[in-house]
């Protein structure tokens, strides 16, 4: 963490106003008229107290000096006084109404902006905890800040106007008193700004732990992890972890509150002493007849207004500084450069995928030292069915993610139709690949949506949806659902129907089949499918994709043997064998070893199940 960030000084505080034009631009785009009116009301609010003091002064002086005159001399200032009070009240109400409306619109706009930005992030961004933290901070801590900055700036203007006008009233009496009035608020504000900074520093340093605390909370309150938590009796362990983290946060927060309260207490006492002394001077002047009653009240009220305005003004500066730190997080996130591959407007469009070629490709994940893939080269042509096999962690899924265009910081070349994947229009590429990942999504939405998300344009096209369902052998399963294709799936919402792992997988397959892809990738459907279903699905997919490209990953090698035009064998990130099933069996090396091993295991399983 950058220590420099945490040293507070006035220069930094003034610098923090730099963010205002950006903030203003953002707010201006929400509701222009509201913004103008709110600003006007703030300015009026700043002037009103001093005007009200003058009205009170002239009313009281009129009462005191008009004993022998007609009542009209008192009535006129009385009407002005009452009118001003009512006007102030109306302005206050209107302003609070407009601000509430404005904040609702702003919060909505901000959350959509953050989602829009999140949409442009890459998979490696999501796997990067720094980017992830920025997103969380923008979402959780910064969303309210733009309005806070705006209202602070307006308050500053309003308080400044209030201060100047009240000072002018007091200046008329004894100019040197002003120095006494301003000294304590200045010291207290500098101290409080430092406290605010400390608080931000603590919050900033906590973001990893906050995320962990949120995650533990999520695990305990979510159906996804419930089964394991329940069966392994993990509840107490997780709660302990949650408590430990939160106790630390609470301890830090309490310490700050204690410091803050003590400091406020001391500054308040000092302020009371100074205020008491000035009050004594005013009362004494009135007593000896130096000033009229109206002026006495005006000076007393000006004194308290100056104190309020000074405190307000200086605490606004420190609040501005503190808010600015959060605002910086927000704009850091919103202005994070969009990955080059997305911003290339002249990216190459492709009609269809004819070939996929890897030339000496090596790749390591940003957070890892060792390579996940090393010097991989192969070519897949239209009409071929390729199987990727290898032990856990050998790099199969990583290879799929590279071919799908998720990571661009690899070495070597990945070519689609002979063109670097980095230059190809990402949306184009995405629309031509039908893919099911190991950890495919189970959307807590209707069955129609779960499938339709594969091709949004067809979400209401029942014929096309049915075709996709048939391709995934899911016709019977879907028609047996209580509301057929319009049944809510999952358990999060009313009338939701939970599916088995294999059934979810068929829904995901239907989703992949709904897009008229040129390349179908199935990453280990065996996780939830029984061996026969997996075999059927592979065979079906390769039949359907006869003139396309199919890439399958499975640990059940016998399911792949007949359908594969080529098998690629990976070991520790390297492509060690390549050929048809027969060729690799004859080669008698790693593939043969894996195949025989699996047959032996299955044989043992069969014998055990018979016994
Ligand atoms: N997001 C990630 N960040 C860092 N390392 C990763 C990430 N995903 C995978 N790895 C690492 O990359 C290597 C290859 O993983 P990969 O998931 O590609 O293997 P796999 O062959 O698909 O394994 P499995 O058969 O278990 O699915 C492993 O060492 C793994 O730990």
Automatic annotation (TrEMBL):
The keyword Oxidoreductase does not apply. Residues 36-322 form the ABC transmembrane type-1 domain. GO terms for molecular function: ABC-type oligopeptide transporter activity; ATP binding; ATP hydrolysis activity. The keyword Transmembrane helix applies. PROSITE patterns: ABC_TM1F (PS50929), ABC_TRANSPORTER_1 (PS00211), ABC_TRANSPORTER_2 (PS50893). Its main location: membrane. It is found in: Cell membrane. It is a multi-pass membrane protein. Residues 356-597 form the ABC transporter domain. SUPFAM superfamilies: ABC transporter transmembrane region, P-loop containing nucleoside triphosphate hydrolases. This is ABC transporter ATP-binding protein.
